[in-house]
Amino acid sequence: MRLGVLTGGGDCPGLNAVIRAVVRRAVNTHGDAVVGFLDAWDGVLERRTIELDVTKMRGMLPRGGTILGTRRGSPYDHDDGPRRARESLEALGVEALVVIGGNGSLTVASRLHDEQGIKVVGVPKTIDNDIVGTDVCFGFHTAVQIATDAIDRLHTTAESHDRVIVVEVMGRDTGWIATYAGIAGGATAILIPERPFDIDGIAAAVTSRHRRGRFASIVVVAEGARPREGTLPALDYDLDPQGRPRLGGVSAVVARALEQRVGIETRVVQIGHVQRGGTPNAYDRVLSTRLGVAAVDALHDGVFDSMVGLRNPGIIRVPLSEVTGRTRTVDLSIYDDVASVFFG
Ligand code: F6P
After folding, report:
1. CA atoms within a 13 Å half-sphere pointing along the CA-CB vector of 85
2. Is 174 in the pocket of ligand 1 (CB under 6 A)?
3. Which residue is catalytic, options 128, 130, 173, 305?
4. CATH 3.40.50.460 region(s) of the chain?
5. What order of strands is seen across the sheet that includes strand 33-37?
6. What is the pLDDT of residues 302-334, one digit of tens each?
């Protein structure tokens, strides 16, 4: 078989580890040839490719980013894009495609399967960890570790100055990173999109903590967190080229409001893209490898229009129709029954 592979959406630690596993499994087990499409769907439409073999995969396991490049656009941004995508694959002799991406890329893959007959298998990727059909997405645990390391460091400087530090982490629609890094880092409060926050309640918790003689507070906020209606002015964001709000900055609003209410000097730290950069941790290297191997096997078994995911302890195949258009929100039993025990 001649397989194609592409990486779409925001990058994520572990992408190269998945590509490596796809190539290894395809070439060594099935005798396939593998072609990589550059810059996601752009590479499909413009027929920009590289041949991938086992030798080219040397050093890929720990390498951050994606050697293929990634973009957020899709064939559906162009009038004749979907047809051109099919024609490109036919012209290049690519019989099936492994799409490593988030909700957007997986939705495109499923439509191309249904409308153009392109054989696809998806691999769930996002540090936000919000894809349905898998217990966890690769890259998430690395991002949590990076955020936790940052919070650990912030504790000591916050304590030295008796300050409040508001730490903003990624999490557009869900607060997975905030919840996990907040628990792991001993946060005083964790603000997530799933639970619009009450700034007065957080201020009261911080005040009472400082009255009890505890020095410093770390408040972790997911970039997509929103204030409860009527409590703070609504946040206004510019749009990115895909028309999505370019998030970032909620921490500054929270910090200002807290400082006014609590009267303790407050600082802001946005961890930003550091969370997505660099080497995947051991857990994500293993998960990426398992998913890459499983994706190739699913293609060979003819299980198209599906995604491979982790359902502990095994790898499962889920129809893309059960994955796309949905968001896997934070397990609120973790937030309400565990994280909140340590608030204040
Ligand atoms: O990949 C998802 C994500 O990390 C979101 O949490 C974040 O809002 C977005 O990517 C930002 O990505 P970029 O700055 O690359 O558009």
Report:
1. 30
2. no
3. 128
4. 141-277
5. 49-52, 33-37, 2-7, 96-101, 120-124, 306-311, 314-319
6. 999 999 999 999 999 999 999 999 999 999 999
CATH of domain 141-277: 3.40.50.460
What is d(CA 252, CA 258) in angstroms, rounded to the nearest whole number?
A: 10
Mutate-to-test residue for ligand 1 from 129, 172, 223, highest number of ligand atoms within 8 A of CB:
172
Determine which residue's CA is closest to atom 10 belonging to ligand 1. 10
**80 annotated active-site:** no
The 10s digit of each residue's pLDDT in 156-183 is 999 999 999 999 999 999 999 999 999 9
Q: CB of 240 closer than 6 A to ligand 1? A: yes
Which tokens hold the place of 15? Answer: 């992408």
Full-model pTM: 0.97
Residue 105 Cβ inside 6 Å of ligand 1? The answer reads no
Report whether CATH 3.40.50.450 matches the domain 2-139+280-322.
yes
CATH 3.40.50.450 residue ranges of the chain are: 2-139+280-322
